[in-house]
Amino acid sequence: MKKLLVASALLWCASSAMAQGARTDRAAVASGESVYLRVGCQACHGTVGHGGAAPRLAPNTLPLPGFETWVRNGTPGWTIATGMPAFPATVISDQELADIRTYLASLPPPPAVADIPLLAP
User: Can you give the pTM of this predicted structure?
Assistant: First the structure.
């Protein structure tokens, strides 16, 4: 009986931690989407990160260290017509940047061209 109680307590702790993690992920996704739209990422990368004037970002996003480096440094010699501007921590905090990456990674891939009736041959 004692083993059953210990096992039940461990299971409850694990499920509680998983539920907490899920809430945290949902909060990060919501925050990331909000910041992504607020700072104007969608203007070049599309509303859901599937590309446009700039490359697709979702759902196969760079690992966080590479993502941070790219966003912080941008494209050297950036102009409005080419590359990406740098976004310093005064514009996007480190936490907001991590949330943007979580948001992008949470998005489903775009449909295949063949699955879009207007584009199908």
Answer: 0.74
